Amino acid sequence: MTLVTYDLVEVGERLPNRSFPITRADLVRYAGASGDFNPIHWNARFAVRVGLPDVIAHGMFTMATAARLVTDWIGDPGAVVDYSVRFTKPVVVPDDESGAILDVEGIVAEKLEGGLVRIDLAARSGDDKVLGMARATVRLS
Amino acid sequence: MPLDPSFVGRSYPPTPPYQVGREKIREFAAAIGDANPAYTDVEAARALGHRDLVAPPTFAILLSLGASHLVVTDPALGLDYSRVVHGEQRFSYARPIVAGDELSVIVTVEKIRSVAGNDIITTRGDIVAADGEAVCSAYSTLVSRAPDPVPEATVPQ
Questions:
Q1: Edge-to-edge order in the sheet of strand B118-129
Q2: What is the ipTM of this complex?
Q3: What is the residue range of A78's domain?
Q4: Contact state of A78 with B56 under an 8 Å Cβ cutoff
């Protein structure tokens, strides 16, 4: 059962916007849980040496965070049948108390056969569009 | 350095089975800051019609990226892993991953290309249950960024 039903949803409907703070501590915890210990996500010296401005968030952390807009809206995370993104710009996470902010928007883009609905997402951090072609297809009740 | 194009189309043997545990799902959900009860409360997951705790939509990366690691770090491929960033990611689910699943991954190299000095590889990880049921296909595109131009001061005169 999803919180949103196929019959009632309309193309053009906007999902509630969200802003997610991302701190260095979040990246360390995500590294541990995911097993992705690439030092560009926790070691500023290393990040700069390989040409990045500073430590950057795991793309997969950004992708997971953006998905919360969809899964909170439909209730059942098991109803996501397809989810894809392009990582267009890194989310740079400074070593301070506030970190970075990820702003996510979503819109119902298309109603498909079989109770499926496509949601298009946009994710920004500061002035940078950090996800491109971010799309989730969900199966609604 | 261009990647070895002969890797395109290569498939690798299934990985040893990965046991999806409730505590790993809970740990992953906490790490992405997601309080959805379907990730932590078995009764809540069952009320939604699932057999057990549901894994978040991006949980499959634990299996697929691990499985493709051996491929993308193979010296014969020629990818500079120290300069790798994630370019694109897609998950296509036949059904959600739930706690108790025993999953293997079959990795295939889908595409290799070079754009403006960046080496780009796309792999597909087909995630299958112990009985062979298709669960998810995970497509990962990794980009090894072109080396920075040599600063003029270091160019021998």
A1: A14-22, A100-111, A116-125, A128-139, A80-87, B84-93, B134-144, B118-129, B102-115, B18-19
A2: 0.96
A3: 14-22+58-139
A4: no
